[in-house]
Amino acid sequence: MSGWGQIGAILRKDLIRELRTRDMLVSMALFALLAMVIFHWAFTVRGDTDLTYFTGGMLWVTFVFAMLLGLNRSFAQEKDEHCLDGLLLCPVDRVTIFLAKTVGNLVFLLIIQAVAVPVFVLFFVEGGFLEGLPAFLAVLLLADLGICALGTLLATISMNTRSRDLLLPILFLPLIVPLLVAATSATTLVLADGAGVREIGGRLLFMLGFDAVFLVVAWGTYDFACLLYTSDAADDLLCVDLGGRRILKKKIGTYRASSYIDNKIRPTSSTNDQ
Prior knowledge:
Layout: H1 3-21, H2 23-43, H3 55-80, H4 83-89, H5 94-124, H6 133-158, H7 164-193, H8 201-228, E1 239-242, E2 245-248, E3 256-261, E4 264-270
């Protein structure tokens, strides 16, 4: 199977599982909608309050925390069900797993935004939204890609820690601040001043550069992120190929360890034999 076929297979598995359980989508959607309602009532206590220049910040704070909630739930399920253990034991490149997970998280975030953005427009945008729609969509896609790429990498790193629910926000939020600032200012300019793609071109280029940097970083470090992930069920079976070097993890109990060599699983001696 080609790399694209492997990405499609992993993505299809994640989508089918989420459509069956709907745990992550429901929690993210409820959080986003509840945040919109709370912001609406908090800022409209006085009828003369001008919300024009608050809209960008409210929107992206909601999306970032909704995505954090989704990442925590998604990777907690992966760990509890040992799904990632199975993927790491397959002859699949680690970057392929990263790309599939990133695309899956991007799809989930876009689904939430398809629900939340109309509510946001109804509550906070008075008019002229359609005129700036191309620029708004450009900001949305570039910011979403950076959020999902960075979030997927850091969620994999923190997945097997005892305090993963706390560690992921601590790692994620400081690193996402530059992208969040650019997306917030660009969104505010589009919604408040009717700016087009040309007027926010500098911010779009910055977001594109941010996305490219973290995609390259993830491309080069996801093998090590997978090494940081170990579970009791697969600790003695997990083998990782790093730049042609085969790394066989410690064997436990009576499991028979295997080496991942040239896309084939080759058994080695068991623990009892040593």
